[in-house]
């Protein structure tokens, strides 16, 4: 094999390896995310707007972020997350008027297919932002 043929064969091997690498990468599970929101920041009762952002892959939740904004008053409240029989209550948050507060938590937990995950603030349990965890 000449020097030119060896270089050409070597280049073809690199291209084939790169192609297989990309195919393998494309076949890996993609990270999924979901977002649910409810309410209105302008609500005069202080309930505000609530959003739940969830990051994960298929049935596994890596982390979530719950947020709240109330344009009408300063507030103090605790975030609550419920998914099936699992629940979490976060620490007390203190916000100025018009401030958006976000609380994030890494949980690395799997849930059954079609589990509903909801987030709310303890003083306003009727204002739930929800998503569905599914395959």
From TrEMBL:
PROSITE patterns in the cross-refs: TAT
Range of residues in the leader sequence: 1-26
Protein name: Uncharacterized protein
Domain of life (superkingdom): Bacteria
UniProt keyword annotations, A-Z: Signal
InterPro entries: TAT_signal (IPR006311)
